[in-house]
Fold:
Amino acid sequence: MIGERIATRSSTMAGSRTTIGRITRRSLMYLLAGFLVILFMGPFLWTLSSSLKNAQEIALFPPTLLPRRLRFENYAEVFQTVPMWTFIRNSVQVSVLAVIGQVITATLVAYGFSRFRFPGRNALFMVLISTMILPREVLLIPSFLLFKFLGMINTLTPLWIPSFFGGAFYVFLLRQFFMTLPQDLDEAAKIDGANSFQILAFILVPLCQPAMATVAIFAFLAHWNEFLEPLIYLSSKENFTLALGLRFFQQIPNDAQEPRDQLMMAASLVMTTPVLALFFVAQRYFIRGIVMSGIKG
Structure:
């Protein structure tokens, strides 16, 4: 009896130590995660705080985190100072058209590389993938000369029309996903009389929605935040996108030399809001598409 009591007490103490150790480790992990969240959210929080300050508070040293008074009128002044709605409309137009083009062309090309067997298929795919290491700066001058010859300079067309000719990274992403789908689906559909386009449209596309959503998110972010190409192709304020419109705050004349840093911070948050909303809405498809297309296959 005494031995059983000692054994029971020992097991109870061991279980308590294990529970305490598990709680301690979990608490440390939560503390570390919280610290990293604060660390990485620091620039965003500082931008948010600065957008609600006046020019004098931003220039204070040592800097203050919280403004003395929340100046929400800074956001209204942003839309009064520059044609912000025009910048937003241009960015939405470019991003939406680019997303449509990338999703359609990347899906078609990836379907061909993953489902059809033809001579030189692997060699062509390697050539396509090798274009990913080509610096974009190498293509800027030839692209500019081409669009100038076509009369597209100072229009939004050069910003989205290349998306309808595919992209190596998006083709690779969708090809990897297509290769995870069994060929039996295609064969069963062919027995029922479906052609290749019907197999893609009615069988494979519904199954690869996570990967297509990932491509759409990547393409949207890339064109929404694009700065270099609008800087090269656009010259009139009416065609500026949001990324180029933020730079416009540094070029407009200042009233009595008063800085406009608080307006630039507010405009930056206006530009960031759709991106954050898109990620939170589509993060489930984004993570699923990355896992299923980037790791498997």
